[in-house]
């Protein structure tokens, strides 16, 4: 079972999300939060596998809540957003969100997105992700740019995989691009995340864009 905490301040939207999630036999909604502070508190208490996190919430916004949840290793975070590509979304990616989901996503896509992130696949929709990452990379950085020296610890193959992540490719897409088994791709992704001290594929994709890999 995939244990999910739903954090959304609009009660009607939250109820709809919960209803959809509970329709799946392999997903369990273990808690609901109406603001960011409650989301963090419940994540600490319930230790869900995944937090479905709205970005704009009262008391503590979704970006700050995501940062706390990720920093404490409480759960993976799947961010809920409109497609405005605003600073909230970019902040959530920097904070370590494992993926993002548009609020107008169909029910079946929502369920698959939750399963995808639970499997460790952070890039939900490659086409949308590529646009998001490109928009992110085009914005002036508000934080110090990543140090290119961090790439020196990667093997040539790991750099190639990182480059593919930066283009928003899935494991299957990377396997096809680099002519390797999908299981091998997963191994390379896991290793490069560890070496770069990153929590998610999305963070790796953003880093690839920042460094021009």
From TrEMBL:
Residue ranges occupied by any Response regulatory domain in the UniProt entry: 3-118
Domain of life according to the entry: Bacteria
Biological processes, Gene Ontology terms: phosphorelay signal transduction system; regulation of DNA-templated transcription
InterPro entries: CheY-like_superfamily (IPR011006), NreC/VraR/RcsB-like_REC (IPR058245), Sig_transdc_resp-reg_C-effctor (IPR016032), Sig_transdc_resp-reg_receiver (IPR001789), Tscrpt_reg_LuxR_C (IPR000792), WalR-like (IPR039420)
GO MF assignments: DNA binding
Keyword Protein transport assigned: no
CDD domains found in the cross-reference section: LuxR_C_like, REC_NarL-like
Modified residue annotations for 4-aspartylphosphate: 54
Residues annotated as domain HTH luxR-type: 147-212
Keywords, ordered alphabetically: DNA-binding, Phosphoprotein, Transcription, Transcription regulation
PANTHER family in the cross-refs: TRANSCRIPTIONAL REGULATORY PROTEIN NARL-RELATED, TWO-COMPONENT RESPONSE REGULATOR
Protein name: DNA-binding NarL/FixJ family response regulator
Organism of origin: Streptomyces paradoxus
């Amino acid at each position: 079972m995939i244990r999910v905490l739903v954090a959304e301040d609009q009660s009607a939207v939250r109820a709809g999300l919960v209803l959809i999630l509970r329709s799946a036999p392999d997903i369990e909604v273990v808690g609901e939060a109406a603001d960011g502070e409650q989301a963090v508190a419940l994540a600490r208490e319930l230790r869900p596998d995944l937090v479905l996190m709205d970005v704009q919430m009262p008391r503590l916004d979704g970006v700050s809540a995501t940062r706390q949840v990720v920093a404490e290793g409480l759960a993976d975070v799947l961010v809920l957003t409109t497609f405005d590509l605003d600073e909230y979304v970019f902040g959530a990616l920097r904070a370590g969100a494992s993926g993002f989901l548009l609020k107008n996503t169909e029910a079946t896509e929502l369920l698959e997105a939750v399963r995808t992130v639970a499997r460790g696949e952070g890039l939900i929709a490659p086409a949308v992700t590529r646009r998001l990452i490109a928009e992110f990379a085009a914005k002036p950085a508000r934080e110090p740019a990543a140090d290119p020296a961090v790439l020196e610890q990667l093997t040539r193959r790991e750099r190639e995989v990182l480059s593919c992540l930066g283009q928003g490719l899935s494991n299957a897409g990377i396997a096809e691009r680099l002519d390797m088994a999908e299981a091998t791709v997963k191994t390379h992704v896991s290793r490069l995340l560890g070496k770069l001290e990153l929590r998610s594929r999305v963070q790796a994709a953003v880093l690839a864009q920042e460094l021009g890999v």
